[in-house]
Amino acid sequence: MKPSLQLRQTQQLALTPQLQQSIRLLQLSTLELNQELEQALADNPLLERLDDPLADCVRIGASGSLDGRAGTATQSEAGSGEEDGAGLELDGWNAGDWSGGDEAVGDWSPESGRAPGDDDERDYPQLAASTTSLREHLAEQLAATRCTPRDRALVQLLIDALDEDGFLDSSPDDVAAMLPPELEVDADEVVTALRLLQSFDPAGVGAADLRECLLLQLERRMAQDPSAQNGPPPETMRLAHAIIDRHLETLAAKDFSRLRRALRCDDEALRDAQALIRRLDPRPGAAFATEHAGFVVPDVIARRASGSWIATLNPAVMPRLRVNDAYAQILKRNRAASGLSGQLQEARWLIKNLQQRFETILRVAQAIVDRQRPFFSHGAVAMRPLVLREIADALGLHESTVSRVTSRKYILTPFGTFELKYFFGSHVATDTGGAASSTAVRAMIRQIVEAEDRSNPLSDGRISELLAEQGFVVARRTVAKYRESLRIPTVSRRKSL
Predict the structure, then answer these.
(1) What is the pLDDT of residues 121-179, one digit of tens each?
(2) What is the spatial distance between Cα 293 and Cα 11, in angstroms, rounded to a whole number?
(3) How many Å apart are CA 37 and CA 20, to the nearest integer?
(4) Is the CA virtual torsion 71, 75, 77, 80 positive or negative?
(5) pTM of the predicted model, to two decimals?
(6) CB contact set of 494 (below 8 Å; sequence gap of 6+)
(7) Contacts (Cβ under 8 Å, ≥6 apart) of 468
(8) Residues 317 and 282 reside in one and the same domain
């Protein structure tokens, strides 16, 4: 077969680098966006950030000056030049009022209510208070204890082997086996050192499991104050000791009838013993943990204005970027600097794509707020069924775009901070032929469980009947699935004396 040349015309869709960057920025969370910006600032000398990511609230800027509060646009007199894009600032921004081309994008600047030097606290860093760890707390007690250097070394070894909750996973035999043979340490010496460690504060530290931890705490109470007037009576302590020692799993299952038969006690004595056990600490070392609770910074804030709910962007998560003025002036005078011209275009793309990102987030958030107005006034029980296609059709976007916008983006509401995906839910039929949101049904299930009689909790079937009385057709299996998603225990585990 002879080789030949043929000319064919085909059509093919291709994503430009600018569009690829826009899609990538849209699906990033706030934390990932800041990491992306830091990398871009390190790679591109023409891009600079004028704000501190950890400072107070900032606003987005672009070419020209837009007054977001009044909703009107005015041209900036400070910005000039279509090529360098430098010196352009934006005092306020409203996504619905902005429009511009590639050459119009140059600078994002915040609307700051005060100068950086107005706050005296900026000159003084906020330092976290020093904390004492569990190992340091135990080591201080060991230093004040009179014992032989050999025992001190063994206790310190056991302290280092504790986990964050204060438990010792290794048995004395395992600890003795880990030591070098020339030290001639047997398991009895390790047991002696362990007993010394278990006498330290907090009570229960050095236990092998939950049962031993609770017993150590209870035995210390019984030894320190056997007949105190304000403490529990000795009979209650002995009953609690028996429950922890032999019937802890039965108590966890809340099988109170079986406990009464095994311990031969009445409901009142069992209730007092259970209350005493509840006052014990199942994690004695957790009080010394240095972990800090994480928090979410909302991307959008829902506010009530003139009788309606509106969504506004949170200025605290919006960066302030611009093209470096010095490099832009060099490019303006010397167009032969081709190496910087490409980076100038990349800087403009990034600034415009960031503005597009926040504009899209605001549009989607406002559409969600418009369709879920009952939620913002009455809470989760008033949530309406909503799917991605409904928002996509209303805004002229693709479902995948709405999915990217609502993923890991958060909105601050009067009832807390929620991910935008929280407002989407499946349909649940009603007896009138309508539909309700599954989120509203979950909220009603939680309300029903919180109002139930703890001595006679409601079964899933009974909860289904109560929902039916309110007009929601929900099967028992669906109630069980929603209850498990809410992490509500079964009816037997919710029962109390």
Answers:
(1) 445 555 556 678 889 999 999 999 998 989 999 999 999 999 989 999 888 888 888 88
(2) 53
(3) 16
(4) positive
(5) 0.65
(6) 254, 449, 452, 454, 457, 488
(7) 431, 474
(8) no
